[in-house]
Design goal:
11 helices, alpha/beta, about 270 residues, binds D-glutamic acid, Rossmann fold
């Protein structure tokens, strides 16, 4: 397939949490144009089966491919951990995919942490993706995976940096498995919003890491290697959702840090 550096980059998530990744990319790669798709009609993915998430991911990737994207970023840990390999196989040679798991794994290894906690949705934790990958890359690293399913909806409802969020965060992080870790991976694209609260819980003694700090480096390197890096922005960024409500648009501001216009697109068909 012929690709050109002026084509946009596709980004998708179950909903609007992946906008934290979109923002980090837009900030670090201002010459690139982005097309975002939030599958708000099926949100949350964290409670769905791996099969359902794979099916959604294929359909969304087909849509982003039709939008002429040169590369697609799976800005959702639940989809990255259950669907990435299948997507690579399904679209072999046609689409370049980047997931949000591998860049974080590489960074942990680079920094030399040995006892690593992971918090994420049930779908991500049930996939055991982090323990499986660390086992392959460095079996010495001990991994402690804990499902924290209330955190994503809590943040979406605007409960962060307050008493309620502190109590819920405390109750999850007091898990004995996380007692002696040296790094904690925020393996959900919603969690950058509660990074400070998590840091407070550990009193700064544990390295709190999330993919928004590292994914753009991975994307940048990949585009360089493939000679697909843009040096001049070719148009506006677009933000699509499969189900539109004003509440989604208001919440989008929380994740993106500024007002954006969401447009509904019916990739699941009309009645
Ligand atoms: N953004 C999703 C993730 O990173 C979590 C939200 C959901 O469950 O859909 O896993």
């Amino acid at each position: 397939m012929n690709r050109s550096n002026q084509q946009p980059i596709g980004i998708f998530d179950s909903g609007i949490g992946g906008l934290t990744v979109a923002k980090a990319l837009q900030k670090n790669m201002p010459e690139e144009r982005f097309i975002y798709f939030g599958d708000t009609i099926h949100l949350p993915y964290g409670d769905k089966s791996a099969d359902a998430i794979r099916y959604y991911s294929i359909k969304i990737s087909k849509f982003l491919k039709e939008q002429n994207c040169k590369l697609i970023i799976i800005a959702c840990n639940s989809a990255s951990s259950t669907a990435y390999e299948m997507l690579v196989e399904f679209f072999e040679g046609e689409v370049i995919f980047v997931n949000v798991v591998d860049p974080l794994i590489k960074e942990v290894i680079r920094r030399g942490y040995q006892r690593v906690g992971v918090i994420a949705t049930k779908a991500t934790i049930n996939s055991s993706i982090y323990s499986k990958k660390f086992k392959v890359h460095n079996p010495e690293i001990q991994v402690f995976e804990v499902a924290t399913p209330l955190l994503a909806p809590m943040i979406e409802e605007g409960f962060y940096n307050g008493n309620i969020s502190r109590k819920i965060i405390e109750s999850y992080l007091s898990n004995a498995d996380l007692e002696d870790i040296d790094a904690l991976l925020l393996a959900c694209t919603h969690y950058p919003l509660i990074k400070n609260e998590i840091n407070d819980f550990f009193k700064g003694k544990v390295a709190i890491m999330d993919s928004i700090d590292v994914v753009h480096q991975e994307v940048d390197q990949l585009l360089m290697d493939k000679n697909l890096k843009s040096y001049r922005k070719s148009g506006e960024d677009l933000f699509f959702v499969s189900d539109y409500t004003t509440s989604f648009e208001n919440t989008a501001r929380i994740f993106y840090g500024e007002d954006i216009k969401l447009s509904a697109i019916h990739i699941w068909g009309n009645i």
